[in-house]
Design brief:
The protein is of the alpha/beta class. It is 39% helix and 18% strand.
């Protein structure tokens, strides 16, 4: 009889991802499919997405060992109508979210808990993981200080209406995290400035499924674009219509092309500024003839718009910037955040200083007058996007950092 003892197979880790969102919002944004990527190609055996401040409590199976647990505030109507009562009830709902999240972590044997931001979801995740043998990761996907400067009202999270209080909470949570994942190099500097330890910061770049940018270009199905002549050169903006995305700059950009013909600006997306922008364009005789606001568009239609564009205007972007470049068209952006990693001025697009509308206009004019140059820049933008931001290219980086996290003491 052999004396060898059979070694049991090592269990794959389990991830709990905490986000200040809900399933309805995820679907409305058209990013539900991206949740399937969080298992990192099978590195995680199970991924549970937890929304601690959803409207109602419910469990949503996603298949492929993924599920959503929504912790609803389930507030009576008289609570939602009064801001004062909301504040009075807030401690109860936060405590309840922490208790239920802790239960989810323990019942699923989670190895790591990742918070989507260092404010509400980060605070709840930190409190729920105390004294548990689980790693805490906090993600940073935006320079909220910069966004607050662009839009002091809605650009960055606040706690009880205070940005200063939110910064204090951010610093505390980042200091407590085992790892801080940033999606681009520039955010590593922001993370350290905001309280993270430099040794704990890791770059986890965005990766996207590039399959929609291969093959034949589809035709539009959106009713506002069905009658658009295929010869018209499309200048597109696709993203959230909010001030931090510099949406008001689209109007002077369109005006700067008033002596050129055969082009149209398509503005796709919804957001808090949508109604105001649509009305401003409607009241202007010139802009109403040169701009089409489509409202929210599903992902397939956005991919079609990007690929059929002559050029893409992405003054501030994350995934949207990668998609615009992957579509094989030149991109025009402000030199803010991480844009210089993908938009190389004169090579993959036009990169202008923040608020330098004149340079964006000059770049568009040059491209409209030189379609061969536009094709060249677009081709180079596509190559760079495929090289640096394909799902396969970044998945190995993520797994490396997750594995290191699991093995750390």
């Amino acid at each position: 009889m052999s004396n060898e003892v059979e070694t049991p197979a090592r269990r794959k880790p389990v991830l709990v991802f905490v986000a200040s969102s809900d399933w309805d919002s995820v679907q409305a944004k058209g990013v539900a499919g991206m949740l399937q990527q969080f298992d990192e190609g099978g590195f995680f055996d199970q991924v549970i997405f937890v929304h601690p401040f959803a409207k109602v409590t419910r469990a949503i199976p996603l298949g492929n060992n993924k599920s959503i647990e929504e912790i609803g505030t389930d507030r009576p109507s008289f609570v939602t109508r009064s801001r004062i009562i909301k504040y009075l009830f807030a401690p109860y709902f936060v405590a309840r979210a922490i208790f239920l999240l802790r239960s989810i972590i323990r019942s699923n044997g989670a190895d790591a808990v990742r918070a989507g931001e260092p404010y509400w979801s980060g605070t709840v995740a930190w409190a729920a993981t105390r004294l548990l043998p689980v790693k805490l990761v906090v993600s940073i996907h935006a320079d909220w200080d910069h966004l607050h400067g662009v839009d002091p009202v809605g650009g960055a999270p606040k706690i009880l209406g205070s940005r200063r209080l939110a910064k204090w909470l951010e610093r505390f949570v980042l200091r407590q995290a085992d790892r801080v994942f940033v999606i681009r190099k520039s955010l590593g500097v922001y993370a350290i400035r905001s309280g993270a330890r430099s040794d704990d910061v890791r770059l986890i770049p965005h990766g996207i499924d590039l399959l929609p940018f291969m093959g034949d270009v589809k035709h539009f199905t959106h009713p506002k674009l069905l009658e658009l002549d295929e010869s018209v050169r499309i200048i597109s903006f696709a993203g959230r219509l909010s001030r931090e995305n510099y949406v008001d700059d689209l109007f002077p950009i369109a005006r700067g092309l008033n002596d050129l013909s055969n082009w149209m600006m398509i503005v796709a997306g919804g957001g808090p500024e949508e109604a105001r922008l649509v009305e401003l364009a409607r009241q202007d005789a010139y802009l109403s003839q040169r701009m089409i606001f489509t409202g929210f568009m599903d992902r397939d239609e956005i991919f079609t718009l990007r690929r059929r564009s002559f050029a893409s205007v992405v003054l501030m972007g994350g995934y949207s910037l990668i998609e615009a470049a992957a579509a094989g068209r030149p991109v025009l952006s402000y030199d803010v955040a991480w844009h210089s990693e993908l938009v190389i001025n004169g090579e993959t697009g036009i990169l202008a200083k923040e608020y330098d509308i004149a340079s964006i206009i000059a770049g568009l004019r040059t491209l409209l007058l030189d379609p061969i140059l536009a094709d060249t820049l677009g081709s180079q933008a596509r190559s760079l996007a495929f090289e640096k931001f394909s799902l396969e290219a970044v998945q190995g980086i993520r797994i490396k950092h997750y594995r290191e996290l699991m093995q750390s003491r």
